[in-house]
Amino acid sequence: MNKQSEHFLFGNETEIEDLGSGLKRQMLGFNHELMAVKVFFDKGAEGYTHAHRHSQVTYVEEGEFHFSIGGEMKILRKGDSCLIPPHVEHGAVCPTGGILIDTFSPAREDFVGE
Question: What is the number of other CB atoms lying within 10 angstroms of the CB of residue 29?
Fold first, then answer.
């Protein structure tokens, strides 16, 4: 991936992409090594169970999330975080509506079209 974000991104100017099914995504910054993304969940929205080659750290900015990582489920709330190793199945349901900050290494090429 040769793309990278601008050095400065402003929340009120950065596109929020509607992913459907009650999910929206806003890029916070990326290059080929690292990516940060804000994900908005409507009440009851689900991040489907999946796995990918990237290491991921997720921080709960707002709301309550029922996270499953490698078959283990925990409830995470504002201020909590989790580490998702490469190739481990994971997903989340948000019964309250909320916001996650996801970071990936390396960057998710599929999020920027490469």
Answer: 17
N-terminal to C-terminal alpha carbon distance within the chain:
6
DSSP state letters, 25-64: EEEEEE-SS-EEEEEEE-TTEEEEEE--SSEEEEEEEESE
DSSP designation for 19: E
Task: Look up residue 11 and give its amino acid.
Answer: G
As to burial, measured by CB atoms within 10 angstroms (0-12 exposed, 13-18 middle, 19+ buried), residue 37 is: buried
Distance (Å, rounded) from C-alpha 34 to C-alpha 106?
5
pTM above 0.70, yes or no: yes
State the Cα–Cα distance between residues 23 and 70, nearest whole angstrom.
22
pLDDT digits (tens, 9 = 90+) for 41-69: 999 999 999 999 999 999 999 999 999 99
